[in-house]
Fold this protein.
Amino acid sequence: MAQLSNKIRAYLDRKVDFLKDVILQDDGDGVAYIAEWNVPEAQPTEEQLNAFESQADAVEALNQVYANRKAEYPSVQDLVVALYDTDDKTAIDEKRAEIKLKYPKPGA
């Protein structure tokens, strides 16, 4: 199930400041809800937000791919060293290609 924040982003079709524009709250039961709606667009119903479930799920899946890749990509220090050493650059290119195969983008 997609996070409420991602459904709201999909509903508004833009970036949202969740400290000012839309404030979400969770009372400790693990269920987030809209505590404040401070944007000009009409506040959506739960049914309207649920219509964006698959779109929000796709965003979350893609974000997970990016997080997995980032965790395994070479460090910035390794990249800097590779700028001056052809063998190191080749090894890094190969490693990046392996990681991209390991964590493909959804739908790709």
In short: Strands lie at 22-26, 32-37.
